[in-house]
Design a protein that fits this description.
141 residues, mainly beta, 2,3-Dihydroxybiphenyl 1,2-Dioxygenase, domain 1, four-stranded mixed beta sheet, 2 helices, 15% helix, 45% strand, antibiotic resistance, Bleomycin resistance protein, VOC_core, Bleomycin-R, Glyas_Fos-R_dOase_dom
Length: 141
């Protein structure tokens, strides 16, 4: 598994629904779970993510404000994949609407354009996930 220096933990309103979305539809591996509180440590191609069911009746030092849909406003999690088309097809097959359809984008870094094929999807609580696949590099002329 290997420990990564950044491991986002997302509070979710329905643990079972979120766990099915991440593991069954997107293909995240369940590394381990805990029951109290409901928690899962997930991995996908070297990326790590944690989900935990929130309990709005309890104070939590990690929650900075009221959790209202969509959770995670102002952030998107870019997750590298080697087959964004497959994820696109799985999401559509499971009737998950895409926030952004499959799209190729080019980002300039110094004198090189880096290509990325990507989709955006919101998880059941509204967290924005950007799955990205490299499509090569081009010199800027």
């Amino acid at each position: 598994m290997g420990i990564k220096p950044l491991k986002p933990e997302l509070y979710v309103s329905n643990y079972k629904k979120s766990l099915l979305f991440y593991s069954e539809i997107l293909g995240f591996k369940i590394e381990y779970t805990r029951d109290n509180p409901k928690f899962a440590f997930l991995s996908y191609r070297g990326a790590h993510l944690m989900i935990q069911e929130c309990d709005p009746s309890k104070e939590d030092e990690y929650v900075t404000g009221k959790l209202e849909y969509p959770f995670g406003r102002g952030i998107n999690f870019q997750i590298e994949t080697n087959n964004v088309q497959k994820l696109n097809d799985l999401l559509k097959k499971n009737n998950y609407p895409l926030r952004m359809e499959l799209k190729d984008s080019w980002y300039k870094v110094k004198d090189v354009l880096h290509g990325s094929r990507q989709i955006l999807v919101q998880d059941p609580d509204g967290y924005l996930l950007r799955f990205s696949q490299s499509i090569g590099k081009k010199s800027v002329t």
